[in-house]
Amino acid sequence: MSVSWTIDEFLEAELRIPSNIARNLRNLFESGYEVPFIARYRSHLIGKASTDDLRHAIEAYDNAKALKTKAEKMMKQIDARVKNVVEKESIKRALSMTMDSNELDILFEPFKKIKNGTLANRAMQLGIDVICQQMLRSEEVNLFTFVDSSKEDLNTIEKVEYQTINLLSHYIHRMDITQKFFKDVYVFLLYNGKLYFFCLHNIFLKIWHHFKLSSTESLDPLINCLFFGLWAFFYCRVFRSANFHLPGVRIAVKSWVRKKAKALKPSDADFHLIEHFKAYISYDKDVRFVKDFQIMALERASSKGIIQWKVDVDSKIIQQHPCLDMHCHFAHREIFHRALEDSTNRFLIPSIERNLRRRLCDRAERSAIDCFAKNLRELLITEPLRGSDVLAIDPGFTHGCKCALVDKIGALLIFFQTISSLVNCNDLSGLIDTGVFHLNGAKSEMDKYAQSVVKSLTSKSASSQTIIAIGNGKGSRIVQIGIAHMIKSNMFLPKVVRFCVVSECGASVYSASELAAEELRSIDINLRSAVSLARRIIDPISEYVKIAPKHLGIGSYQHSINEKRLDQMLDIVVRECVSNIGVDINAASLQILQKVSGLNKTTAANIIKYRQKNGKFFSREALKDITGIGPKVYEQCAGFLFIYFDAEDNEPPQKRRKFEKEKEYNPLDATRVHPESYSIAKRLLIEAGIDTSYIGSSLLSEKLLAIEDFVKKQPPEWINTWELLAKPVLVQNPPKLLSDVKQMDSLQIGEVVEGIVKNHAQFGLFVDIGVGFDALVHYSTFPPLIPSVILSLKGFFA
After folding, report:
1. What does each C-alpha distance from 737 to 191, 465, 504 come to in angstroms?
2. Running DSSP on this structure, what letter comes out for residue 730?
């Protein structure tokens, strides 16, 4: 017997989407299509779902397959363990209809084998099963007939009662009404009371965004949200009308300090953790109102050995136990109630606590992954700063400051290490790769020699404008103040110099990697981080993909998350961002190519080999000649690989002539339009009164936007192609260029300052306001209906 529901139905229920979209999603996933391809070229099949929605859909699709396997395995075990045909079919039918993993466990609980060595197993071996079955049928049992002086565990009436209670409490816990009660408590605590606020909040936001921000948007999302709001309202009404409530019963999350932590002394290395987690020592909060980030903090404190925490269920819950209403022979009421109390304390309460903790942790982990994914996406799509040479300074006290000067395309011009322990050198002539850049932690400015070093390096730039990128590690503030002083003193004239702060996260990991050794073979490992910082300004996404996302320092409690689950979700985000921005196939590295939708390390390496052997690509059609790129892979990757043609390039003519007629350059190969839609794109250009020669011109978007009314009347494929041609790729704000710095003591109470969002956490935003410390803006202080665009990483906030 198989499950009675389909994956389509699971997706429809889990994601609250129409059946046709659920069916389309399942077909796309089964066909092996990746998120970037679906989001861009099959959006008309999925209701314009976002990439986050698709990521959740993939997780739901995987969960559906795992749930089917789990249910079918349980049904096979039921076949072997249950002899009664009617009971067997009934439980198998219930298992086949369930679309929740926890509910499966609840249904299967009564049919689990009693483990050897348990109290219930011991009582069953003693033959107490007969007593329990008669009691549950409300029959009178003479317990004295079971007293057996030859058996140590049954030689008195008290021991017979004890064994009876042990087994009867086990049977009570496995009864259908007990498991239903457990399920009701579980659902009540996790969902009831939150749906009202959730739905009203989302409905209000949808209406406001629709009419205030994007009045031309489709009404479908609004209708869907209203429909879900009504469904949730009636669900709550029906749920409450069932008179399920827990008066006087408190279920809370509680924590306490471990004995090991109490014994810590101020001189111990971990003593500071007590202060760090002081908000979660003796924590006590109703489980319905605990935030996800608080659960993650409790988990982190627990893993550090500072506290222990649990979901604590009030023992008064026994007053709501449905078995209290069971009819029992009056002679056995005392034993039955003792068994009920034992069952509640030994089985029901721990089950509720374990399941709630597991669900709370799972929900908190999912929220943390979503937060990490949001920050990662916004970091990867940071707008590059092009057109200037970049001097990167990686500050430090122990090993000194590392400097690297790169040109406009990221090629290394000069690398330079400054070591604070060396004697200052006054002669900077001929300086290439060694020297001294003295930093003293007690000083607020760089000394004259350090300033002369920076000035000498910027003078070696051939560009009239130079950007100084300063790492945000130790010593960063001193360098920022020193550079600001130099700019204010006109020490860089006639060059125009400004500086910005760049994150150092992951730079040391990259420096020690095999990739860095291959790219920067002749440079000492300590100097490579500065090169990475400089390139993060010029081409952020190409540099960041070289580093595993977990090393970028933008996650919330990332070290407390299941590593496999985190890596899987973040890989989807990286591939989505790389594909969304697009890749120049004639210039892209192996690291960036292997993150394109449809490609992997092998096919990316084959592209580079083909490029080295045959020269530049002149057409997307040439991809079909590469080993490993068949029709399916080509379909997925072609739209994300761009080919920019320059008539004056240096490619040998003989290599150009080898391409067939259909593989000649097509200007549409430099756009986001998929080759399957080229015919539609050409008809749109004709309708706009232009041709392919306008591609790459600022007039292209202007001409296409003029025919918007015509396009809106066309099929979805036309609208999608028009959007890909007319609308640019959305990128985040570039690093903010500065010429001065603020001081902490210069701030005034009530002063409004501008800052850049550096990290998005579940409880608020960390905003760099330029004083050396990030300001925490807690969600509780946000004005109502604050636009989400300024809540994003690198978004400006005032």
Report:
1. 47, 12, 17
2. P
Alpha carbon separation from 146 to 117, 143, 159, 284 (Å, rounded)? 22, 6, 10, 47
Instruction: Point out which residues pair with 755 in neighbouring strands.
Output: 797
Average pLDDT over residues 714-723: 92
783 compared with 514, residue with greater pLDDT = 514
CA distance 674 to 635: 8
Other beta carbons within 10 angstroms of residue 38's beta carbon come to 24
Least confident of 130-134, 190-194, 495-499, 628-632: 190-194
Q: Cβ(748)–Cβ(790) under 8 Å?
A: no
Beta strands in 618-763 (DSSP E): 641-642, 755-760
Predicted confidence (pLDDT) per residue in 90-118, tens digit = 888 888 888 888 888 888 887 887 777 78
Contacts 24+ apart (CB under 8 A), 491-494: 491/451, 491/455, 492/455, 492/458, 492/466, 494/464
Q: What residues contact residue 438 under an 8 Å CB cut-off, 6+ apart?
A: 418, 420, 424, 447, 449, 450
Q: Which helix (H) or strand (E) element contains residue 496?
A: strand 496-502
Closest CA to 274 of 288, 287, 284, 263: 263
Residues 756-782 pLDDT 10s: 676 667 677 777 776 667 778 776 676
Q: Which amino acid is at 141?
A: V
Contacts 24+ apart (CB under 8 A), 480-485: 480/738, 480/741, 480/772, 481/444, 481/445, 481/446, 481/741, 482/445, 482/446, 482/450, 482/451, 482/454, 483/446, 483/454, 484/738, 484/739, 484/740, 484/741, 485/445
What is the rounded distance in angstroms from the CA atom of residue 203 to the CA atom of residue 225?
6
